[in-house]
Hints:
Blueprint: E1 12-16, E2 18-22, E3 25-29, H1 32-40, E4 44-48, H2 57-62, E5 66-69, H3 93-109, E6 113-116, H4 118-126, E7 131-132, H5 135-138, E8 156-160, H6 165-170, E9 174-177, E10 184-185, E11 192-197, E12 203-208, E13 215-218, H7 232-244
Parallel strand pairs: 1-4, 1-5, 5-6, 6-13
Antiparallel strand pairs: 2-3, 7-10, 8-9, 8-11, 11-12, 12-13
Helix pairs in contact: 3-4
Amino acid sequence: MSSARKPVPARTVAVTASIRPDGDTNRVRLTAAYVTALENAGLVPLIVPPLADVDAAAAVLDSVAGLVLTGGEDVDPARYGEKRHEKVRSVNAARDATESALIEEAKARGKPVLAICRGIQMLNVALGGTLVQDIASQCNTSIAHDEEGARDSRSHEIDIEPGSLIAKAVGAEHVVVNSFHHQSVKRVADGLRVTARSPDGIIEGLESTDEDWWVMAVQWHPEEMTDSPEPWDRGLFKAFARQLEA
Length: 246
């Protein structure tokens, strides 16, 4: 039997998930909207829960063409050297460790990354940045970033840097997004740059400064908006899919 490594299917992507209690058992959790959005873009999601052995992250990235970092729990402030603010919600140490390892392996291989909500925060922390632990109590803003309405309802505008990956993907420099986060990127990690902000200055988009590593990170939840009449959110997934074929 040949030991040669089989080529990685260009359409298979690792998609991070969580493990949460459900009654007397624990279940892997991922909002189905991620799967639908990726499949509609022609991609095949490989769901990756928190791993007991983070060294397995290398094998995961060898088996896929790209990485999707999804929403979920708060990132543990200990990961960026801060004490836990009283408004920090549930954290998941195993998920933090797994996603940090996946990010490192994706970067080492130059594999494309699409990061969403918690994903943009985890990406920034894994690369050495910090977070605003609670926007409402730590930032001067009148924008409700942590909405309680429908997941597919647009909440506030964002301004996108012309020529950035996000601008090219959505085909616009000003769009209206949904908003379900109480934390945000604070100090931007080396190797990342800001490409979108809300009017109050909260960071809504990042990308890599390394031309050899395609990274598109957004603070909102585009997977919940792909049925919208506007093409903006579908455009993000299509751009990710195109990059996997590059």
